[in-house]
From TrEMBL, chain A:
Protein name per UniProt: Dipeptide ABC transporter ATP-binding protein
Pfam families xrefs: ABC_tran, oligo_HPY
Xref: SUPFAM superfamilies: P-loop containing nucleoside triphosphate hydrolases
PROSITE patterns: ABC_TRANSPORTER_1, ABC_TRANSPORTER_2
Protein's organism: Rhizobium lemnae
One Gene Ontology molecular-function label: ATP binding
Family per record: Belongs to the ABC transporter superfamily.
CDD domains, per the entry: ABC_NikE_OppD_transporters
Domain ABC transporter: 5-260, 288-530
UniProtKB/TrEMBL annotation, chain B:
Transmembrane segments: 16-35, 79-103, 123-149, 188-209, 244-267
Domain ABC transmembrane type-1: 75-264
Pfam families listed in its UniProt record: BPD_transp_1 (PF00528)
Its membrane topology: Multi-pass membrane protein
PROSITE patterns: ABC_TM1
Family membership noted in the UniProt record: Belongs to the binding-protein-dependent transport system permease family.
InterPro entries associated with the record: BP-dependent_transpt_permease (IPR050366), MetI-like (IPR000515), MetI-like_sf (IPR035906)
Location of the protein in the cell: Cell membrane
Main location group: membrane
Protein name: ABC transporter permease
Keywords associated with the record: Cell membrane, Membrane, Transmembrane, Transmembrane helix, Transport
Length: 583, 280
C-alpha cells in the first residue's frame, strides 16, 4: 500500500510569545491509503489537536505548530509538508484532499441554508456548473443512503435528525473525493443505533473509495469495529500505537490497559449485578410505583396553531422500584425515556396516570425523589459557589442553613470524593467528573429514597465514568437508594441495572430482570438495540445498514392506543406482544 | 467587601475607572457643599468671555460666570440625572424582562409589545412627550429618561433570560422545589450580571446625552442652574469665539463616560467567578 500521510515529531502549542504552552509533543504516525487509524484518548489528551493540525485548522483555534513535519501525498503525486505550506495552498488541500467530519452535526451546518445548497457549494468550488453541481449533490446524498434525496435537498438542517445531519456532513466531506478523511468523534452526539449506522456508512464508503481515514474517538468499543491501527494518546503524547488487534488484546502500556479496563464491556447480560433486592426473600415494598403514566404534548400546525393531534411522548408506562434496586430505562432518543424521568420530577405535567414515591423516613426535611442531570456543565449554576449550590435543596424546603446542614455538606462532599476545601469554590474549578459528583452530593442533601439519573454518566470520559458508576453503586448499597437509571448505553446499563425496561415510541416494550432481558431479548426493538452495541469482540465486522424510518409519535386528536398485551417469559420478564403486521 | 475592593484595585482598568468615578463624586460633593472657586451664579460683567487665566482657570462664559464653578455644579447635576434614570430604567426593565420570561404567554406578549411600541419612538421624542405631560424639571427629566431606556433593558434581559431558563440548573432548581423568587434572583439574575453591566455603562453615556438634549430644548435642567449638557448647548454658538466653553465640559463628559465604562468592564470581570484566579 502507498503511504498517504506521515507525521513526524509533531509538537503543537497554544498561547503567544513567551507563554506558549505545548499541548501535544512529539507525535509521530503514518497512514496508508485505504487504511483506518483510530486515535483514542480521553478529553484533553490532544487527539483533536492532532487532527486539526493535519489540515492546519489549528491555526484558527489559536494554536501553533512548534516542530515536526506532516508529509502528505497529494493527488498530483507530489509529497507536500503541510507544516510549511502557505495558507492559499492549504485552501486547495482542505476539502479537496483532506475532508473533515466534526462531532456535532447540528452546529457544523449553517442553519439558514438548505442542505442541498450547502453540498452544492462544495461542487461549485470545484468549478462545476449549476445543473452539474445539482446532479452531483443528488448522487452524494444517495451515496450516504439518504432516502428520497431530491426532496431532502430543500430541507433546512433543523428539519433533519442528528443521524441524518451527520450523513449530510459525510456527504459534504466526501463530495470532493478527498484522499484523507478525518472524523473527529463523528458519532459521540448520536444514539447507539444511529451510531452503528454512521459507522457502517463510513466503513462501506471507505471500502468503495479507498480513502485513508483518521477516526478520533474516546470509545475503544467503536475502535474494535472499524480500525486497522490504533494510536492511544494521553496528555498530549502518544503512549502506544500498533495494529488494532495487537493493542486491544495485548496492550503494553499501563494507560492503554487502564482505558481498556474502564470501557464498559457489553457482555449480553453475563455480568449483571447479583445483589438484586427483588430476589431476596425479605424484599421490601416498592418505594416508587408508577401506573399508566402518560405524557402527551399538543401538536399544532400552521399560522393559527390549529391543533392537529398530540405527540404521545410517553404512553401508559407502568413500573415499580424497590429500595436498593436499579431500574434502567433504555431506548434511543425520542423514545420518551427522559420525558418519563422529567414527569416523575414534576418538570413535565403528566396527561394521565399516577405515581407514588415513598420517603424512607417520614420527616419534613425530606423529599423522596431527586434527579441528577446528564450534562454536569449545564446543571450547576456557574455563578454560585459549592456551598450555595448544596444549600439550595435545603433552602427550598424552607429550612435554614444550620450547623447540622453544614456538617452534612462536608460529609457528603467527602463521601462523593471531593476535596474538603470545595465549599468555597465555583463549578468551573472542577472537572466534568467532579461536577457530576457535586450533582450527586446535591441530590443527596435531602436524603432522598429515589434518585433519578438521567444519562448521568453519558457525558463523562470512560475512566471517569467507571469511577462515578462505582460511586453510585456504593452509595446505593450504603443508603438503600432506589435508582431510576435512564441511559442509551447498554454496557453501562449492564453494569448498574438490576432490572431493565426498554422504551420504544413512548411505550415499554420489554421489562424484566437485567440478565434475562439482555441475554434473551424477545422484542424486535430490544434485539436491534443490543445488536447495535459496539463491543470489543466484534472486529471489523461490517455494521449493517438499516434504512428503516423512525416511527412518528404524532397521533390524531382523540387517538387511544390499543391496551398492551403482554407475554410473560420468566417470573420477571415481560414482553409486549407485537402486532403480526410488524413481525 | 474589603477583598472585593483590593481585587478592584488589582484590576488595571478597574483601578483607573474607580479613580475617575471617585474624583467625579468628590467634585460633585464639594460643589454640593459650596466649595467652588466662585459662586456659580455670580456674573463678572467686565470679565465676560475671558479665556483661561489665573483668576478663572477655565475662563468665563457669556454672562461672565466662572466656568469651573459651573462645571463642578454641572457634574453633580448631570450624574445625578444619569445615575437615577439609568438605575430606575435598569430596575424596572429587569423586573419586566424577568417576569415576561418566567410567566410567559399573555404577560410576555403584553409587556414585550408595549416595549416594542416604546422602542419605536426616537428617545428624545418620547422624553419630550413624557415631559409635556408631566412638566419640566430635574425630577421629571430623570423619570423621562428612565422611561425611554426601560424597553432597552427589558429586551437585554429577556434574551439571555430565555436561554438561561432552558438550562439544566433551572430544571434542577425546580426539582428541589425552589421558590420562583429564588430561581429568578439566584439563577437568572446572577447570570444576567454580565449583559446588564455592559448595558448600564452604555446607558449612562446615552442618558448623559439625552439629558443634555433635553436641557438644550429647555426641558431638562432649568437655567440658571447648570448641567454639563446645558453648558455644552450654550457653548455651541460661541464655539469659534470662546472654544474653552465647549472644550472643558466636553472633556468632562468624555472622561466621565470613560471612567464609568472602565469601571463597568472591571465589575463585569470581577463579578464573574470564572475570571477569578484559582487560589493555588
Amino acid at each position: 500500500m502507498t503511504q498517504l500521510l506521515s507525521v513526524q515529531n509533531l509538537s503543537v502549542g497554544f498561547g503567544k510569545g513567551d507563554t506558549i504552552k505545548p499541548i501535544i509533543r512529539d507525535v509521530s504516525f503514518t497512514l496508508n491509503a485505504g487504511e483506518t487509524l483510530a486515535i483514542v484518548g480521553e478529553s484533553g489528551s490532544g487527539k483533536s489537536v492532532t487532527a486539526l493540525s493535519i489540515n492546519r485548522l489549528i491555526d484558527y483555534g489559536g494554536g501553533r505548530i512548534l516542530d515536526g513535519h506532516i508529509d502528505f501525498a497529494a493527488s498530483n503525486g507530489r509529497t507536500v509538508d503541510l507544516v510549511t505550506l502557505a495558507e492559499h495552498e492549504l485552501e486547495r488541500v482542505r476539502g479537496s484532499e483532506i475532508g473533515m467530519i466534526f462531532q456535532e452535526p447540528m452546529t457544523s451546518l449553517n442553519p439558514v441554508v438548505t442542505i442541498g445548497k450547502q453540498i452544492e457549494e462544495v461542487f461549485r468550488l470545484q468549478g462545476k456548473s449549476g445543473s452539474e453541481a445539482r446532479t452531483e449533490t443528488l448522487r452524494a446524498l444517495d451515496r450516504v443512503r439518504i432516502a428520497d434525496a431530491s426532496r431532502r435537498l430543500g430541507y433546512y438542517p433543523h428539519q433533519l435528525s442528528g443521524g441524518m445531519l451527520q450523513r449530510v456532513m459525510i456527504a459534504m466531506a466526501l463530495a470532493a473525493s478527498p484522499r484523507l478523511l478525518i472524523a473527529d468523534e463523528p458519532t459521540t452526539a448520536l444514539d447507539v443505533s444511529v451510531q452503528a449506522q454512521i459507522m457502517a456508512l463510513l466503513s462501506e464508503l471507505q471500502r468503495e473509495t479507498g480513502t485513508g481515514l483518521i477516526f478520533i474517538t474516546h470509545d475503544l468499543g467503536l475502535v474494535a469495529g472499524i480500525a486497522d491501527r490504533v494510536m492511544v494518546m494521553q496528555a498530549g503524547q502518544v503512549v502506544e500505537q500498533g495494529a488494532a488487534d495487537q493493542i486491544l488484546d495485548h496492550a503494553e502500556h499501563s494507560y492503554t490497559q487502564h482505558l481498556l479496563k474502564a470501557v464498559p464491556h457489553f457482555t449480553n447480560g453475563n455480568h449483571v449485578r447479583e445483589d438484586a433486592p427483588r430476589l431476596s426473600p425479605s424484599a421490601a415494598n416498592a418505594c416508587l410505583s408508577v401506573e399508566g403514566l402518560t405524557v402527551r404534548f399538543p401538536a399544532t400546525a400552521g399560522l393559527l396553531r390549529r391543533s392537529i393531534g398530540a405527540i404521545h411522548a410517553v404512553e401508559s408506562v407502568d413500573f415499580d422500584i424497590l429500595p436498593g434496586e436499579t431500574l434502567a430505562i433504555v431506548g434511543e432518543s425520542g423514545s420518551g425515556k427522559s420525558t418519563t424521568a422529567r414527569a416523575l420530577l414534576g418538570l413535565v405535567k403528566p396527561t394521565r396516570g399516577a405515581f407514588r414515591a415513598d420517603a424512607q423516613q417520614a420527616t419534613q426535611s425530606q423529599k423522596p425523589m431527586q434527579m441528577v442531570f446528564q450534562n454536569p456543565y449545564a446543571s450547576l449554576n456557574p455563578r454560585l459557589d459549592v456551598k450555595s449550590l448544596l444549600a439550595e435543596p435545603v433552602l427550598a424546603t424552607g429550612q435554614g442553613i444550620t450547623k447540622d446542614v453544614q456538617a452534612r455538606m462536608v460529609s457528603l462532599l467527602e463521601r462523593v470524593g471531593l476535596p474538603s476545601d470545595s465549599l468555597t469554590r465555583y463549578p468551573h474549578e472542577f472537572s466534568g467528573g467532579q461536577r457530576q459528583r457535586l450533582c450527586i452530593a446535591r441530590a443527596l442533601m435531602l436524603d432522598p429514597s429515589i434518585l433519578v439519573l438521567d444519562e448521568a454518566v453519558s457525558a463523562l470520559d470512560v475512566s471517569v465514568q467507571a469511577r462515578v458508576l462505582d460511586l453510585l453503586i456504593d452509595l446505593q448499597k450504603e443508603r438503600n437508594l432506589a435508582y431510576l437509571f435512564v441511559s442509551h448505553d447498554m454496557a453501562v446499563v449492564e453494569r448498574i441495572a438490576h432490572r431493565v425496561a426498554v422504551l420504544y415510541g413512548g411505550q415499554i416494550v420489554e421489562i424484566g430482570d437485567a440478565r434475562s432481558v439482555l441475554s434473551n431479548p424477545q422484542h424486535d426493538y430490544t434485539k436491534k438495540l443490543i445488536a447495535a452495541v459496539p463491543t470489543m469482540d466484534r472486529r471489523r465486522e461490517g455494521f449493517k445498514l438499516n434504512l428503516e424510518a423512525v416511527p412518528t409519535l404524532l397521533r390524531p386528536a382523540g387517538f387511544e392506543p390499543q391496551p398492551a398485551e403482554w407475554s410473560t417469559l420468566a417470573p420477571d420478564h415481560r414482553v409486549r406482544i407485537q402486532p403480526a403486521a410488524n413481525a | 467587601m474589603i477583598s472585593f475592593l483590593t481585587r478592584l484595585l488589582g484590576h488595571s482598568s478597574g483601578r483607573i475607572g474607580a479613580f475617575i468615578v471617585c474624583l467625579y463624586l468628590a467634585i460633585a460633593l464639594a460643589a454640593w457643599f459650596g466649595l467652588t472657586p466662585y459662586d456659580p451664579l455670580k456674573q463678572f460683567r467686565i470679565d465676560r468671555l475671558q479665556g483661561p487665566s489665573a483668576a478663572h482657570w477655565m475662563g468665563t462664559d457669556m454672562f461672565g460666570r466662572d466656568v469651573m464653578s459651573r462645571l463642578m455644579i454641572g457634574i453633580g447635576q448631570s450624574f445625578l440625572v444619569a445615575f437615577s434614570s439609568v438605575g430606575i430604567a435598569a430596575l424596572v426593565g429587569t423586573i419586566l424582562g424577568l417576569t415576561a420570561v418566567w410567566f410567559g404567554r399573555l404577560w410576555d406578549g403584553v409587556v414585550m409589545r408595549l416595549m416594542d411600541v416604546l422602542l419605536a419612538f426616537p428617545a428624545i421624542l418620547l422624553a419630550l412627550l413624557f415631559i409635556t405631560v408631566v412638566g419640566p424639571g430635574t425630577f421629571t427629566s430623570i423619570l423621562a429618561i428612565a422611561f425611554v431606556y426601560t424597553p432597552i433593558f427589558t429586551r437585554v434581559v429577556r434574551g439571555p433570560a430565555l436561554s438561561i431558563r432552558a438550562r439544566d440548573f433551572v430544571d434542577a432548581a425546580r426539582t428541589f422545589g425552589s421558590s420562583t423568587s429564588y430561581i429568578l434572583t439566584r439563577h437568572l439574575m446572577l447570570n444576567l450580571v454580565a449583559p446588564l453591566t455592559v448595558q448600564v455603562t452604555l446607558a449612562l453615556a446615552w442618558s448623559l446625552l439625552t439629558e443634555s438634549g433635553l436641557s438644550f430644548l429647555g426641558l431638562g435642567t432649568q437655567p440658571p442652574n447648570s448641567s454639563l449638557g446645558l453648558m455644552l448647548a450654550d457653548s455651541i454658538n460661541l464655539m469659534e469665539m470662546a472654544p474653552w466653553l465647549l472644550i472643558f465640559p466636553g472633556l468632562t463628559v468624555m472622561l466621565g463616560i470613560l471612567g464609568f465604562n472602565l469601571l463597568g468592564d472591571a465589575l463585569r470581570d470581577l463579578l464573574d467567578p470564572r475570571m477569578r484566579r484559582v487560589a493555588a
